[in-house]
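Honest question from a wet-lab person: if I give you the sequences of every part of a complex, can you actually get the arrangement of the whole thing, not just the pieces? Trying it with mine:
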Amino acid sequence: MCGIVGYTGRQDATGIIIEGLRRLEYRGYDSAGICTISDNKASIRRSEGKLANLERLLVTQPVTGSIGIGHTRWATHGRPSEINAHPHQAGSVVVVHNGIIENYLQLRDQLQAAGHVFKSETDTEVISHLIEERRKVSGDFEGAVREALQLLKGAYALCIVCADEPDLLIAAKLGSPMVVGLGDGEFFVASDIPAILSHTRSMIFIEDGEMVVFKGGKAQFSTVAGIPLQKTPRHIDWSAHMAEKGGYRHFMLKEIFEQPRAVRDTIAGRLREEQGDVYLENLSMTDAELQGVSRICIIACGTSWHAALVGKFLIEEHCRVPVEVDIASEFRYRNPVVDKSTLVILISQSGETADTLAAMRESRRRGGRCVAICNVVDSSIAREADGVVYTHAGPEIGVASTKAFVTQLVALYLFTVRLGRSRGSIDCEQGRKLIASLVRVPALMEETLKLNDQVEKVARNYMAARDFLYLGRGMNYPIALEGALKLKEISYIHAEGYAAGEMKHGPIALIDEHMPVVVLVPKGANYEKVCSNMEEVIARGGRVIAVCSEGDAEVRNKVEVALEVPLDGEDVSPIILSIPMQLLAYHIAVLKGTDVDQPRNLAKSVTVE
Ligand code: AGP
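Yes, you can. This is the full assembly:
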């Protein structure tokens, strides 16, 4: 989730761009850069690390010009480094990009065969070479951009300048956010409103497949193919504080609603639908090595441990490899059995959790091979692991993990397909089916997010409860645990997640009319059994909030509240069921007035034991 800023007008571009990048700081980043055009020369400055490093560089090596582009990078392809920082240049063409180009490897091969020399590991650099290649042929910069964009697969929000066209700035959008700000004879482009709100409140949100050419004090909107478009500006009356949250009240709610995009980004470029397989660019394990794995340990903490529990179900079901799941702080102080045929998977959003990092080091000391599932490129755990499957959730600001969690589940689905295909336990057809289920997930999530208003109403009726019980079975048992943790950590209400089948072994003693019981009961293998557990709760006066499949009148007629989700099986139920869990916890916490984004006593990353 990078940030881009562009400017063209009468003012000096550098100050406006740097200020814009600073206001995108909440998006997180590991490097930054800027390019301005003056006297037909492109001046580029880039630096690794925080924006302050770029600002220091500009003190000693300033750039000038009234047209320019800037970028903050949240690495997805290629380590955080100066060489991978944007802007990227090829000849006279300079580009900044937010998004993922899925076919960049093929395009790079073609361009290298044509003599292009690449310096970085990024997908973005391909775009600058592609435009330059076409511009050399046609001599027409705008036309070259249009041709190049039509060859790209994936997502982009781009700002492009050309040293030979000093008063021309082009912006284009497909799948990544972009907003255009209109000033008095000047124009602003950014990934998000906060970057330009201090300069203008008149904005245009261009749509996917559209682009805008700024030239001679005018903005020409069109489709990438060249069909002119008329655009009506909107007046944005947000405060700067609101704008950082995209208009949402809290980062947590913004991140809950970002989940479809986060899942799309985590899947992007990794599906090989034809072969019923996936491509995990940094896994660093051959088929033979995957075949040599005799058992798997998945180790994590907190919410990431819940993802690990889902991973156990997936891998054992589809790959027939025994999986143990461990809490990192327990694993590291036992005398765990790990040897060279053990694959140890470490799941960590931050990549800095002390216990998980220590567990990985202990595993490696014992000869285990370690793969990390991580959301932060080049974090400690990612750097020290033998291989990494990155989630592309983008920076997660809310302490309570949401989008990072669901993308961990997606990463586990992807890994399961790869492992199963390498070992032959998943054939091509089965692989295609699993991939098809994953491809449907973002749309199912968008459908499920429509429950938000209903959940807000439900929260009002249950916010006074002192204890909650969450029940689930099979792959949804970990989601019951996750639902309970979400409620605990942001509303401070005590909650327990339990395997539904365990009710009779103790928790049923808790049930009375004061006890809300959230029951995860989608159609699927465990449906009848969970229904009977639910009946036991109802028979004892428990207040049931059921999360069930859309149209399940049988459940709806039995319970106090039915939250109906678009699920007709259990393939991807853990991902979809997570959303009502997150929303219920969020709305109860808001009603209780807690600090939702930074709950008491908690830290986003527990880097100490
Ligand atoms: C989740 O909502 C919590 N913030 C916490 O349990 C978190 O999942 C845990 O600390 C692990 O963090 P990690 O994924 O960054 O390793």
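Two things worth pointing out. The longest strand covers residues 31-38. The radius of gyration is 25 Å.
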